[in-house]
Specification:
The chain is of the alpha/beta class. It has one domain (about 1-160): 3-Layer(aba) Sandwich (Dihydrofolate Reductase, subunit A). It contains 4 helices and 12 strands. The strands form 2 sheets. Strands 1, 4, 5, 6, 7, 8, 10, 11 and 12 form a 9-stranded mixed β-sheet that branches. The longest helix is centred in the first third of the chain and has 11 residues, at about 25-35. The radius of gyration is 15 Å and the shape is globular.
């Protein structure tokens, strides 16, 4: 299983129900990695999508404790056990954890790869991703060149366990 995330310099990923940084190259990278694969997310993350609608050309799995919640083209799981049962149907190399913070924390131990877009900003935030630079067992496998969008520098970094 893999995770994909956009973090600022403090490993922050969001504030309220919003992403911290909108970078078109990051969205393109996310789409390229996840299209044709399985994406696993929490309900709040799903609700931030336009519509909110399932991401096209992907199997969308949403984890929520709300037993009455559902959405078209989404597999809904109400527990990690239900999620694991669903994931047995797929090659784990095709599964991407895409947020939010509590889903990342719960599923990161099952991931062997994390694609991190590191953005050189620090913004007010209330949602964070574990700092892989300080997490035992994780190392940088690949670090892309520095890019820039609207004066904000960022790079794509691949972590492995």
């Amino acid at each position: 299983m893999k995770a994909i995330v956009n973090v600022d310099s403090n490993w922050a990923i969001g504030n309220g129900d919003s992403l911290l940084n909108y970078i078109p190259a990051d969205m393109k990278f996310f789409k390229a990695k996840t299209t044709g694969n399985v994406v696993v997310m929490g309900r709040k993350t799903f609700m931030t999508f336009p519509g909110p609608k399932a991401l096209p050309n992907r199997v969308n799995i949403v984890i929520t404790s709300d037993k009455s919640w559902n959405a078209p083209d989404v597999i809904t799981c109400h527990s990690l056990d239900e999620l694991y049962e669903q994931l047995e149907r797929y090659d784990t190399n095709t599964v991407y954890v895409i947020g939010g913070s509590s889903i990342y924390e719960q599923l990161l131990p099952l991931c062997d790869t994390v694609y991190v877009t590191k953005v050189e900003t620090a913004k007010p935030a209330d949602k964070f991703f574990p700092n892989l630079d300080e997490t035992e067992g994780w190392f940088v496998e690949d670090e892309g060149e520095e890019n820039e969008h609207n004066g904000v520098k960022f790079r794509f970094v691949t972590y492995k366990k």
